[in-house]
Amino acid sequence: MSGAQLSAAHAEAGRRARNARLGLLGPAVLIILLISILPLGITVVYSFLTPGTYGGVTWEFSTAAYVQFLFEEDIFDGTLAFNPAYLQIFLRSIGLAFGAMIGTLILGFPTAYFIATKPRQQRTFWLFLITLPFWTNILIRTYAMLLIIRDEGFINLTLMNLRIINHPLSILYTDTAVFIGLIYTYLPFMVLPLYASLEKLDFRLVEAGYDLYASRWKVLSHVIAPLAKPGIIAGCVLVFIPGLGAYITPELLGGGKKLMIGNMIAIQFGSSRNWPFGSAAALILMALVVIVLLVYARAAGREAKAHG
Amino acid sequence: MADLATTHDAAPAARARKLKARDLKAMPGFKAIAWACIVALYLPLIVLIVFSFNDNRSVVKWTEFSLRWYQAALENEGIRNAAWVSVKVALVATILSTIAATMAALATTRAAAFKGQGLAYAIINQPLMIPEIVTAIATLSLFSLVKYVTGITGIGYLMAAHTAFCIPFAFMPIRARLEDMTLTLEQAGADLYATPLQAFRYITLPLLMPGIVAGAMLAFVVSLDDVIITLMVAGPGETTLPIYILGAIRRGITPEINAVSTILVGVSVLLVALLFLVQRRMEK
């Protein structure tokens, strides 16, 4: 074979490999493009349309959905007045998701550290204990939590039987219940990435810290926590994002009274029959998530650079 | 001078003793928090499961062991239909998503990194990146448009939606398995005149099987447990088990819900436990 023939054969082989790769990637990429990404485009379009009388949309351009997010139109004279109701739901959701993130971090860090410092054979078992709730139906876990914290639930009955309290603590259908529910739901999401980071921890550095007369708190805050930073960041993102869009927890434990963004969006596609407004709210939620992910990407990038 | 020498020697020894007494790795209170977390994670589920076996309408006062709520659940037409829909949707979504994920994993791992690989990963993982409620209403919007234009209805929409969000879950373990496999065996096969198809059929596929099984199990669990997307996309008569349970909780708490929930939790636990065993075998 001459050189030209060889390079032609090479090019042919390369083309074949590329085609094979495209063929293999095709189905997965196509399914997700069509059923997960294209719908987001539809949502953008819907958010600029007019609600249909029986749900759905009518094809008339309108920015009413975005105006409605902050303002309320007077039905008589059509003037706009500031209406903070929806903004409050967004702020409450951000607050609850942030609180759940901090709460799971405070509980999850010691748990992950404890597991990571166990002998290797025991770690698998502990990890299994954390993973199991991770893969258990969130609806059922939330229902189980509801059974526990109801007025006539397990906790109140136990406390009353022990004569610690006389009247049941009314936790259900409050922000506290939603907060507890979010922590309960997303705790495994925090522990698993933290563990992945802490497991790789080089304890010679901890020893070096103690050798240099660092107190236990100093070692924890100046040696261990910085080394576990990738895990802390990943855990926080994994709790904050689903927490922000939570639907089941506020639905069951907030009793439909303590709304979060997720419920508000769902209602627009259900009883409120205002698909454009629901679409707009979903896009505002998406924007929040994208901001969080960008901050995460930057932080993760900085980490990677710092530890080259 | 002598004084100085003795203190110099004594200090590290004393500190070493002190360090040995308190384990280098131990942090005060961490063990207690870890145990508290495990108890908090499991106590509600244990209460739920225990009271599914209670011979009483109450889900809090124990009277006697009984299977009557399981019997009631199994005889309930609504629950039986919902279970059948759940299994049908999960099976179709698992098969389709596992095939697509396996192909995609083969394309992204067995050769040198290529242009657009990052984009391919981003697309495949996209369903994990955005809140489920957003995917749910977006999918509902698309499907209602497609239904309006084509007039086609049916359970296929729900199956398609499940297939899409199952792909990244099936993809993870399959890709992880492929990344751990070297190409040497396939190369040896090629040296012995195996065609690429034969090499795949008799070498790659058997080696990859644990990853594929793990991916399929994850996809099945994720599909079986889905609430929000199903809630939005499912049409009349397409109620899955979680959607049935959600409706039942809204109507009022009964031990029957505990019984169905226990069955659903049991299936997930069984599959995840199997998955753990498969993965431990893979590590060996």
Task: Describe what this molecule looks like in 3D.
- The complex is a heterodimer of chains A (308) and B (284).
- The model of chain A has no long low-confidence stretch (mean pLDDT 87).
- Chain A has helices at residues 3-46, 64-70, 85-116, 120-134, 138-149, 154-161, 175-199, 203-211, 216-227, 229-244, 248-253, 261-269, 275-306; strands at 50-51, 57-58, 71-73, 80-82.
- Chain A has 2 domains: 3-46; 85-306, MetI-like (MetI-like fold).
- Chain A is flat and about 75 Å long.
- With 308 residues, chain A is mainly α.
- Chain A has a two-stranded antiparallel sheet. Chain A has a two-stranded antiparallel sheet with strand order 3-4.
- Chain B is mainly α and 284 residues long.
- Chain B folds into 2 domains: 24-66, no CATH class; 70-283, MetI-like (MetI-like fold), CATH 1.10.3720.
- In chain B, helix 4 runs antiparallel to helix 9 (196-225) and helix 9 runs antiparallel to helix 12 (255-283).
- The interface between A and B is large, with 88 and 91 residues.
Quick synopsis:
The complex is a heterodimer of chains A (308) and B (284). With 308 residues, chain A is mainly alpha-helical. Helices cover 74% and strands 3% of the residues of chain A.
Biggest protein-protein contact in the assembly: A-B, 88 and 91 residues
Shape of chain B: globular
Query: What is the N-to-C succession of helices and strands of chain B?
Result: HHHHHHHHHHHH
What percentage of residues of chain A falls in helices of 4 or more residues?
A: over 70%
Radius of gyration of chain B: 27 Å
Largest sheet of chain A: 2 strands, antiparallel
How many structural domains can be distinguished in the coordinates of chain A?
2
Let me know the number of strands of chain A: 4
Strand content of chain A: under 5%
Number of domains of chain B: 2
In the CATH hierarchy, what is the class of the largest domain in chain A? Answer: Mainly Alpha
Mean of all residue-level pLDDT scores of chain A: 87
